[in-house]
Amino acid sequence: MRRSHYAARAARITGSVIDASTSIIQARPNDVVRLAMGSPAADFVPVELFGELLAAVAVDGADAFDYGPTEGERSLREELLRCLAGRGEDVAPESLLVTTGGMQGLDLACKLFVDAGDLVVVESPTYTNGAATIAGYEGRIVEVPCDGDGMDVDALAELVAREPAPPKLIYTIPTFQNPSGTTLSPARRERLVELAERWGSLLLEDDPYSWLRFAGNELPSLRALAAGRVPVIAVQTFSKILAPGLRVGWTIAAPEVIARMVDARQAMDTCTNTLQQRLVARFLAGGHLDGHLDALRAEYGRRKVAMQAALGDELAGLDARWTDPEGGFFLWLTLPEGISAAALFTTALEQGVAFIPGPAFSVGGAFPSALRLAFSAEAPERAREGIRRLRRAIDLLEAT
Amino acid sequence: MRRSHYAARAARITGSVIDASTSIIQARPNDVVRLAMGSPAADFVPVELFGELLAAVAVDGADAFDYGPTEGERSLREELLRCLAGRGEDVAPESLLVTTGGMQGLDLACKLFVDAGDLVVVESPTYTNGAATIAGYEGRIVEVPCDGDGMDVDALAELVAREPAPPKLIYTIPTFQNPSGTTLSPARRERLVELAERWGSLLLEDDPYSWLRFAGNELPSLRALAAGRVPVIAVQTFSKILAPGLRVGWTIAAPEVIARMVDARQAMDTCTNTLQQRLVARFLAGGHLDGHLDALRAEYGRRKVAMQAALGDELAGLDARWTDPEGGFFLWLTLPEGISAAALFTTALEQGVAFIPGPAFSVGGAFPSALRLAFSAEAPERAREGIRRLRRAIDLLEAT
Fold it and tell me: Which residues from A are below 8 Å from B50, CB to CB?
């Protein structure tokens, strides 16, 4: 294949550290403590119930294995709208699109809105694959610093003031952010919506985790705050609250945007797999979600506290800091300057623990000494063993 | 949403007639004879076996519902490579990517290779969503006429001679083409590969149907003929040979291209749904495929013959022609000039039969009096009733 064959955008498409790590980790499945991937707690995936629901769906016959509507199976759409309404989210049917995981919502948003060279704002750190999607459509990414209250919106305003044009799109994960675990404060939410309105920017609200709050108070989504003043594309998913292998997510946006997304999807993956849309529909129709979410929230809360305790114990004597998320899957660990997270990744794997190094979450490769730790996947005792191994890896690395 | 927000490519993304038709047809599920969608025969989807295999997969526990490798589940990759080898296709593991339906292979190919303004050749008529994918990446589409032997490669050479640069990519469905049902002849296959080699063009071989040959002799794929001389991306799928709702397909290309596709996918849909990849793997491992394909070939052969007989009987006295496919799902019906397939679509639906109008398969809206008829989905008696209704619709339309 001659290099000249590739499209210009191909140069912007690079491999994800997360995926590379997954392959390495999956090659040694039993001994590595998995603090890397954003996978749900395996014990809390309702496998038996899924089995029963699958058997029930299979009764639909060949229809359960046929193409479905591009906008999503009717049964799932109805249940999902009901479920959203129950959470105070009044969504019109024509504002809802079922997607193949939340990831596809990000892809569709960028496909429809990001031209080559368009200014796109992301948080720093940000979700690797979110930034990769923007880069794939050749957006010009500007990273905005974050602190314990999420994106620093004053810094955002200053950065944008230095640009010739306002951002086309602002990509944010405001609630229990990936990778930091922090949440955008109420005041900053208001201010972000105001800025977007002033600039005529589109808000891309990536929200896989907000239903998994285990501490603090519910906050309004950007979509709710914007209330039509600012165009918002909200991306959500069953990956974190049910199971990621289902590849069922959804996007909420203005009807005109959803209609265009439906058109675009026909030339991307046609529709989301039918069987598992119906599985999820039956799960919702059976009234299983609320109890499931309660159990998850309690468990993830326990796991977060346990991991923080393990960090306090095992990293004693190290000048390390970590975030204090009120929900979601991740916390962000900052080790003393001079410790390379990339070098630590290899040593840590040899010691039997996996995480994602900080530079994976920055276009510019910042956060050389930071780590994303998922407290979601491993039970507390095992996570503590992971942190113990991490400390051993740090000590080994420091000794060389 | 201000119109100016949209990316330039959004203007190239338009709704598919196929999908619009599907929505209309699905709104009246029981009475319409379905000759529109490329759906497999429902009676031949092994629903009971699928149910058993799903129960077996669910024994894998939460792992069956977790993220999997972006390149595809290991079990499916192994079975698929074995299956391809059994068909004389020697594919290296690093040349294989599992995709979310065949459609995603087309999307990935265009994402990696089509720059705005690049010349891309397609057949006329061609698969609606294939052309839509190319348009979505802003390729400049040139349509090449086809006849009963597939793409007219001499016409292709003449068209390209008039262009300032050779095509970046040649998109073709050489075997049992969608929508025409015709097959590229052996001589033209050789010539097409030669032309691509001379021009340095990439061949995108869309091949959902070649395992469903019910007449004539097997032909070598373009990939086999090219034998590395010309870069070929071959796109295949379980949608037509098993069930489309699974959304499991695969792409074969040079290892370097596959590696880039894996990178690109991480920012598109992360991975194909895990459960149904494992379902397909178990179906293959159980040795079910060969017998299943034999049954399908026999049935689709019967259905094609029956539809042709029905056309001969019911369209008697009309100057209509239709193709004679040796496999696949479709035949192409050309009605007398002056009959508008678009107008007929509405009248035919009122009469209780659905098809796709010819202009859907042409960027320039050619084929005003042609129809794509799928003989795959309906049993012969019901298909005959559909053709009877079609004749009634034609007569009604002619009488107005």
Answer: 58, 65
Closest by CA to A123, choosing from A192, A171, A163, A194, is A171
* B22 closest CA partner among A58, A274, A247: A274
- Dihedral in degrees, nearest 10, Cα atoms A382, A385, A389, A392: 170
Tell me which of A285, A318, A344 is where a domain ends: A285
Q: What tens digit of pLDDT does each residue of B253-285 get?
A: 999 999 999 999 988 888 999 999 999 999 999
Q: What is the pLDDT of residue A30?
A: 65
Q: Which of B269, B245, B265 is nearest to B257 (CA)?
A: B265
Residues of B in contact with A62 (CB under 8 A): 40, 42-43, 45, 47, 243
Determine contact: B200 vs chain A, CB below 8 A.
yes
* Closest residue to A269, CB basis, from B18, B100, B256: B100
Residues A242 and A317 in one domain: no
- Alpha-carbon distance values, A44 to A49, A50, A238, A358 (Å): 11, 12, 14, 28
In whole angstroms, give the CA distance from residue B367 to residue B345.
Answer: 14
Predicted confidence at residue B77, as pLDDT, reads 98
Which of A132, A141, A186, A133 has the alpha carbon at shortest distance from A168? A141
| Per-position b or e across B138-159, b if 16+ CB within 10 A of its CB | bbbbbbbebeeebbbbeebbeb
Of B8, B260, B270, the CB nearest to A10: B260
Which of the listed residues B285, B302, B336 is the one where a domain comes to its end? B285
Structural domain for A99, as ranges: 64-285
Contact state of A200 with B37 under an 8 Å Cβ cutoff: no
One domain, residues B73 and B10: no
Tokens linked to B125: 């008529």
Say yes or no: B274 contacts chain A, CB-CB below 8 A: yes
Instruction: Output the domain CATH number for residue B259.
Output: 3.40.640.10
Question: Tens digits of per-residue pLDDT, A237-267?
Answer: 999 999 999 999 999 999 999 999 999 998 8
Q: Tell me what pLDDT residue B57 has.
A: 86
Q: Specify the number of domains making up chain A.
A: 2
The CATH number assigned to the domain holding A18 equals: 3.90.1150.10
User: Do residues B256 and B146 both lie within one domain?
Assistant: yes
**B248 and B158 belong to one structural domain:** yes
B57 domain residue, yes or no: no
What is the interface pTM, i.e. ipTM, of the complex? 0.91
Chain A's closest residue to B62, CA to CA, is: A42
In a domain, A9, yes or no: yes
CB contact under 8 A, B65 and A1: no
Let me know whether B192 and B124 are in one domain. yes
Interface test with A, best of B100, B104, B223, B274 (most A CBs within 10 A): B100
Q: Both B249 and B346 in a single domain? A: no
Structure tokens given for B317: 């006295």
**Cα radius of gyration (chain A):** 21
